[in-house]
Design brief:
Layout (H helix, E strand, L loop, with lengths): L1 H6 L4 H21 L3 H25 L7 H28 L19 E7 L4 H12 L8 E7 L4 H4 L4 H21 L2 E3 L7 H11 L5 E4 L5 E2 L9 H5 L3 E5 L3 E2 L4 H6 L10 H13 L10 E4 H6 L10 H11 L3 E4 L5 E3 L5 H22 L9 H12 L3 H18 L8 H23 L7 H22 L19 E2 L4 H23 L4 H25 E2 L9 E11 L2 E10 L3 E6 L12 E5 L10 E12 L2 E8 L4 H12 L3 H10 L5 H23 L2 H8 L1 H9 L1
Parallel strand pairs: 1-2, 1-4, 2-3, 6-9, 7-10
Antiparallel strand pairs: 4-8, 5-10, 6-8, 11-12, 13-14, 13-16, 14-15, 15-18, 16-17, 17-18
């Protein structure tokens, strides 16, 4: 029946009407019955229309092979479209019926397995590591069953004995500082002779020096909530062949896109589509994989593979693939139990994504999951879906330049009329949008996937081509975290986006010129011009992304309500903590007349922690003072000096994950396709102007001569 519907010859009017009916049915089913059989019916209807487009596109639109100038770019465009369709098909298989929320099994007292917690580090500062190690040490778990390890790759013998004397001294000082920190926190410091096999080698060195039945991995900037082990360990008692329990990565700071576009508090983060839908879908088929941190692994399973895999620079996914192929199982727990930091700058963001893309290609090249023995058919599809996604820079680049082939060089790369475009291509694009909204609506707003892919394509494309030419060339590079941007600026890698934008503007003028001078082909020119205009809107929004705003704070404030006392100017008064971040906290109190609060003053916050072994006093510096209806509100910066202070900071920020869940839930709102599209276009218009102001330095002049006006525009 599906084949009959796909191949049934109808006129353009019937095709257009059918497409509109299918779109309305998808919308209706999503509004009134978004789960179960109605969900499958809606997706099946959408898929049927997509493949009807594919059939038409394959049989009716390609130019003759004899016309190589037209045929070659036409095949490139056709291949990019078929890649997108294939990726959609794989994604639908993965996420059509995601795994429902799980209830953590309870561990009987006295039956807890021994656990080693690994915190691998390379160049992170001691303050960041202290907070993570303190949070890991404070987990709700028997102390005699838990060992925390700092695996320091920044203080190896190789680094301490290098020929660069200044760098060697720096490594030696790092080793001494972190050794003392670990002693104060009661955790184990471990380094190694040489920096071999990057993070995977560091973890394997930790395996060789520890003996816990289970291994927990936290990145240096990923601090866990107190119940992390209670929410994950029980699954291992239920399934003796379970090798992995993975939890999502929740971040307490915006990525460069969210910060530049000011969307962090009102729109889901980019990673939420993966952790909120895709990982649950992978889990449904037994294919949830290790994501490098916030995970628990079984030592017995890792022994089978001689530890963590290291033939690629994405050791996490490669390790999971290897163990899945050996018959081991995995579980995904969709509860945020760690809070971490994302890259602050656009350049660091691109560096991180380049490593992911290159590593996934290496896995494809060295292991090819589709034919990997030991995997189930569903697992093979899951891994291929996750890996092939990272080829998007190739297709996205083709979609970007294809309008130029026609507008600038008059190449006929798509045989069809304007009416055929409306009946087939426009319907296909709309159904694509509605299917995405159906599957990911609460987790990814319309057009933001296209924006994220575009901003990565410019740099991921050469990175991907490089690893294709030499699969063993890429090396693991640590992603910088905790960076600051002191002033508004254009990213150091942002210029290509302005160049592309200018070319697209020229293409707009060429469109109008061709419509005026070639009226006989105006319908095709209008279609291609609209395509270029869509690319232009996305490119304009990208100008705002690479126009980075000043951001000196490493993390955003998380709202909490917790009683404390404040000792300031020799007077101790009751107070309430309003919010907290990695850098400080905000308290409100009623100060008596004899107590004054000024910027720069030292104060002490006293909080009763749940663990009696943690010191209850925390020194702070007053950074701002305000009045709110007679109540004094103090913005403070942590002035931690001892390990006990970091333990209290970790308790304040990471003890309870409920606030993280509330924060996520507050952002997960589906604006719908129409409203979401309007919002994106309006945002793109503003960000285009902001980007052009940055590049022409108008923004700096405006701030100098009319700061109030500019601040008001940013506020809106």
């Amino acid at each position: 029946m599906v084949a009959f519907i796909i191949t049934l010859p109808v006129n353009l009017q019937a095709q257009l009407v059918t497409g509109c009916i299918v779109i309305l049915l998808i919308v209706f089913l999503k509004m009134f019955a978004s789960e179960g059989v109605p969900r499958m019916v809606a997706l099946a209807l959408g898929v049927a229309m997509v493949f009807r487009y594919v059939y038409w596109r394959t049989t009716s639109t390609l130019p003759p092979m004899e016309e190589l100038a037209n045929f070659i770019p036409a095949v490139l465009l056709y291949s990019a479209e078929m890649y997108s369709v294939a990726l959609m098909a794989l994604s639908l298989f993965v996420v059509s019926s995601p795994q429902p929320p799980r209830i953590a099994p309870v561990i009987a007292p006295g039956k807890e397995p021994t656990v080693d917690i690994f915190v691998p580090s390379y160049n992170e500062d001691a303050g960041l590591l202290a907070t993570t190690l303190a949070a890991a040490s404070a987990l709700d778990y028997p102390r005699d069953r838990l060992t925390v390890w700092l695996l320091d790759d920044g203080g190896t013998d190789q680094k301490c004995e290098q020929h660069d004397l200044a760098a060697a001294r720096e490594a030696q000082m790092r080793r001494e500082t972190l050794t003392e920190l670990c002693r104060e926190l009661g955790v184990n410091y471990l380094t190694r002779p040489r920096n071999e096999h990057a993070k995977a080698g560091n973890l394997n060195h930790g395996l060789a020096h520890s003996s816990g039945e289970l291994i927990v991995v936290f990145d240096a900037d990923h601090a866990p909530a107190r119940p992390f082990l209670r929410e994950t360990i029980g699954y291992f008692n239920e399934d003796p062949r379970l090798f992995l329990v993975q939890t999502p990565h929740f971040f307490i700071n915006p990525d460069p896109v969210e910060r530049s576009l000011d969307t962090w508090r009102r729109m889901p983060s980019e990673n939420e589509m993966f952790y909120g839908v895709i990982q649950r879908g992978l889990d449904r088929w037994g294919g949830a994989f290790f994501c490098g941190s916030a995970a628990v692994l079984r030592r017995e399973a890792l022994k089978e593979t001689n530890g963590f895999a290291h033939s690629s620079i994405t050791e996490d996914c490669e390790t999971a693939l290897t163990l899945h192929a050996r018959g081991w199982h995995s579980v995904y727990v969709d509860t945020p139990l760690i809070a971490g930091l994302q890259p602050e700058t656009f350049a660091s963001f691109i560096g991180q994504r380049s490593r992911w893309a290159q590593g996934m290609y290496q896995i494809l090249r060295f292991h090819f999951p589709l034919f990997r023995s030991g995997l189930t058919i569903a697992q093979r599809i899951c891994y291929m879906s996750s890996i092939l996604f990272w080829f998007f820079p190739i297709s996205r680049a083709i979609f970007l330049v294809s309008p130029f082939f026609y507008l600038f060089f008059s190449l006929e790369i798509f045989n069809g009329s304007g009416a055929e475009f409306a009946a087939y291509t426009a319907v296909y694009l709309l159904i694509n949008l509605f299917i995405q909204s159906y599957l990911y609506g609460k987790y990814r707003w319309p057009w933001f996937s296209e924006l994220y892919e575009y901003i990565q394509t410019v740099y991921l494309l050469p990175a991907l081509l490089s690893v294709m030419i030499n699969p063993k060339k890429p090396t693991f590079k640590v992603t910088s975290k905790g960076e600051t941007i002191d002033e508004n600026r254009i990213s150091e890698i942002g210029i290509p986006f302005f160049v592309i934008f200018v070319i697209q503007i020229v293409a707009v003028f060429v469109t109008f010129w061709r419509i005026a001078t070639e009226p006989y082909s105006a319908d095709i020119t209008i279609v291609v011009g609209m395509w270029n205009l869509l690319n232009l809107i996305i490119s304009g929004c990208a100008l705002g992304v690479v126009s980075e705003k000043a951001a000196k704070r490493h993390s955003q404030r998380i709202a909490i309500t917790r009683r404390c006392s404040l000792l300031i100017a020799g007077v101790e008064v009751p107070a309430i903590i309003d919010d907290v971040s990695m850098g400080g906290l905000r308290v409100r109190t009623e100060l008596p007349p004899e107590a004054t609060a000024r910027v720069g003053m030292h104060a002490v916050v006293r909080v009763t922690p749940p663990d009696a072994c943690i010191n209850d006093t925390l020194p702070v510096l007053v950074r701002n003072v305000a009045l709110d209806e007679g109540v004094v509100v103090l913005g403070t910066q942590f002035n931690a000096k001892t390990a006990a202070h970091y333990q209290l900071i970790a308790d304040l920020i990471f003890a309870n994950a409920d606030e993280w869940k509330k924060f996520q839930a507050g952002r997960r709102k589906n604006p719908g396709v129409l409203r979401g599209t309007v919002m994106f276009v309006v945002m793109a218009g503003y960000q285009t102007l902001r980007g052009l102001a940055y590049v022409t330095q108008l923004e700096r002049l405006t701030r100098r001569f009319a700061p109030g006006l500019f601040a008001g525009a940013h506020g809106r």
